[in-house]
Structures are given as C-alpha cells and as structure tokens.
Amino acid sequence: MTETRMSALPGRHNLAVLAEESYARHGDHPMVFFEGTWHSSAEIAERSARVAGGLGKLGIEPGDRVVVLTMNTPEVFVSYRALWRLGAVVTPVIFLQTPPELRHILEDSGATAAIVTPELLPLIQAASEGLELTVIVAGDPAHDTAEGTDAVAYESLESAAPIDIAPRGDDDLAALLYTGGTTGRAKGVMLSHRGLWESGHALSRVGESQGTTRWLLPLPLSHAYGLIVVISGMHSSRRQSSVLQRWFDAKGWLELAQEHRVESSTVVPSMLQMLLDQPYQDYDLSSLRSFGSGGAPLLPALREKTEEAFGVTILEGYGCTESSAVIAASTVEESRPGSVGKPLSHAEVIIAGPDGSPVPTGEEGEIWVRGPGVMQGYWNDPAQTAATVVDGWLHTGDIGHFDADGYLYVDDRIKDLIIRGGFNVFPRDVEDALLAHEAVTAAAVVGRPDAQRGEEVVAAVALHPGARTTPEELIAFVKTRLAPHKYPREVLILDAIPVTSVGKTDRKAVRSMVRTAEGES
What we know:
By secondary structure, the protein is α/β, with parallel strands linked by helices. Among the domains are: 15-194, ANL, N-terminal domain (Rossmann fold, 3-Layer(aba) Sandwich), CATH 3.40.50.12780; 418-520, ANL, C-terminal domain (GMP Synthetase, Chain A, domain 3), CATH 3.30.300. It has a 9-stranded mixed sheet with strand order 2-1-11-10-12-13-14-15-16. The protein has a 5-stranded parallel sheet with strand order 4-3-5-6-7, sandwiched between helices. Strands 17, 18, 20, 21 and 22 form a 5-stranded antiparallel sheet that branches. A hairpin with a 2-residue loop joins strand 1 and strand 2 (37-40). Helix 1 crosses helix 3, helix 4 crosses helix 5 and helix 7 packs across helix 8. The longest helix is centred in the middle third of the chain and has 18 residues, at 193-210. It is globular. It starts with 14 loop residues before the first helix and ends with a helix.
C-alpha cells in the first residue's frame, strides 16, 4: 500500500490513523476469513483507501452520515476504515429492521448514503422511497442485485485513487448508533473518535491478557458490537485473524472453529444453547479457550453446562451503546460466575443511591459511568441528553452492585428494556402493535427469563367488552408489524391489565402473572 499522506494533522485519536498504525505495526498477514477465502491486511488497507476515494467522488464529505446495513462480510472492515479515512460518520444499522424503523433512522440522521449487501437492497429501497439517498451495494458482482436499479456497485468505488486521511479532531463525530429507550423511537447516540479509540484500547487489553489471536465472529458487525470489535483489533500488539460467519448457524460455527483452530468467540446466550444442541463432541475444539458473552442475561445453569461441555471459561461483559459498547469485562484470570467482571481502564464506575452518592460495597444502586467512552449526547435531543448524562456521569438505568474485590454485578434494570437473544426489544413498540388490533383495549409487554434467548417477549392484553380473539391470532397480527426478534411468542388474555395507584401499568404484577401462567402450563 502507498504511504499515507495527510494534508493536515489529524487528532491523536483519529480512527483512520489508528488503522494505518495497525497495518504499519503488523505488516501483511491473513486477516479475515470469509466463505472459503482469506483476505489479507494489505488487501483490506488498500481497498479502504480506494473506497474512501470512491465515496468522495460520490460527493460524500467529512461529517456526512453513511449507513452501513450489511450482513457480515469483509466489506464491513473495509467500509468502516474507508469512512473514517474520508472523515465521514459511520452509522451502523442492524439488518433486523422493518421499513418504518429504518426510515426513521434515515430521516433522523440525515444520512447521505447507505452501504448494503444485496439481500438487503429491497429493505433500503422500501425505507428510502422519496429520500435523497445514494445506495451502494457490496456483494459478489456476479450476483449483484443492484443491476437495473439506481444503486452503485461497491466494486466501482475501488477503481478510485487512494486518498489522504481527512483531518478530524479527537472530539469529532466518528459514529452515530441508533438505540431505543423503554419509550419512544430510536435515538442516535453520538460517539467521538477519542471515545471509540479509548474504548477499543481498553477492550483490546482484555484480549491481550488472554493471548488470543484467532477469533470466530458470528454476531452482526454492522452494530455497536462490531464497531468496537474492529477498533479493538486495530489496537492489538499481536496479529489478529478473524473467521467470519455471514450469520450464525451452529453447525457452521463448529466446522469453522475446528478447521481454523479458533481460540475464542463472542456470542450471546442463545447461541450457546444452540451449540449445546449440536453433536459438539464430534468436533475437535481443543484450541478453544473462552467465549465472550454479552448482550443478554446468562443463566447460571447455561454457563455451567457450557463451560463443562467445551472446557472453556465464559467471560461475561457489560456495556451499552451510550458507553461506546463497553464498561466492564471478565478475563480468564479474573472471572466470577454472575459477575460482568471489573470496570475497564477507561471507565470510572460507581453504584449510586437515590441521592446520587455512592452506596457501600455490596449494596444495590444505579450503575453510573464516566470517562472518554461516554457519548457526546443523543442526536438532535438535548433534553434527553441532559437527563441521561449529568455532570459527566452516564446514568445507565441499570441496577447493580460491587463485591468486596471490585467485581461488578448487574442485578436488574430500571428501564423495562427486554433483551432477547442479544437484541433490544422496547415494550412500547410491541404494545403499540398490539393496540392496533381492533379487539385490544390495553396491553403490557414484559420479559421472561429464557434458557435459550436470555429473555423471551411475553404480552398481556385486555380486550374491548364483547370482543373476541385468540393468542395465536394476536401473534400473527403483530408479526406483520414488528421485526422478527420483537414480536411476543406468548400472549395472555386478561380481564384487565393491572395498574399502580397512579394509573401506570404495573409491570411487576404482569411479570408475576406470566410466571404463574408458565408454572401452570
């Protein structure tokens, strides 16, 4: 690759500079394995510099938001690097979106372009109708569904000449990630170059302590998780190789882990259960040392069974989008069942009582964090920003405690967010969909612990007087209105939805009803 020339001095934490430094440190080596082919670090670096030039020719400028909506492919690694080189803002979007959900993100972010894989082209076309959006399709040219559309083929960008790294400051926006709350629509979380640089650096130290150099990546890279994995790898002092699955399937995971002598893999609990359901004893997994588990509660019984079956240590971690994805993590040397590990080097964490003062060790309170990884704020939402980040402290909305040795435990959530299989489900989204049914007068949605998914979405509804419907009919109704991971798998039809003394839905009572119904089934 040609030597980097910078027309002005970028900030110390510019992520494009980090990518260049990583390549200079390690040189050319096998970097990403995908569907039968190894892609080298030199190839990724060269393609990134050319794609950045191609994006610039399309009129994309520093500060522009560009959506990355893809299945797992090497082009994710290329695109992130290219966008940072250009000075643009990476806007990763998980592909489990409905057109209205995606349209909100496109409109709210003001995205000028979107990079998609061919199978997601119909989704972006449906969501962007009437918007000025350049769509770029990254995929096998022989099977490129962009033909006959206004979409731009990704390979055409690579014919451009490499460009210099755009000067961007440490506090300039590097990524805009959309996340929701327990109410309302998805909000854009603003993450700076420095914040992501520091978070990736802290996470990379966890990998360094394990000596891990070969990973299997089955989780979506077009997500907060993928963003921090890419950045963490660029910080590593060792050459890193990643084996990539387009999308997780248990049999394929076992085959790849055996073939490539994988040492670690990042997963959510539902994946662990799927692996245990396979004839894993038939595979040589002796190289495997650990699983990194996050995104959903890990039931103790599942952890114990997995560690015994695979001879590994499960390393639980904790973070949120507003903290640049990571706050705490376990290591092989420091791992306790039920704990998410100790806070990473970039994060100061306290357990705050109702008055905001730290509570004594062992007592529960809200988890607050501050440090360079904390978001700059919510995009176009100063009021919500002010309520969430107070005097530099991010109020996570999660309840937790420290033990005497400094291990962090996440005990509950103040918010009613449900995490199903690693994906966020916001009760109001599901409740609104249920309330659109002509028979439903009230709805309450809660999460129920589930061995495979971490949590399962369960709904309770009350019907209008004289109305009739069935749980099966309601589930079928909302399936057409919600992303696949959101719709409830169970619906209870009640005489009335319980409410508190001030008229709010009593979710505690609803959860109790769900547990009772489960016990009777």
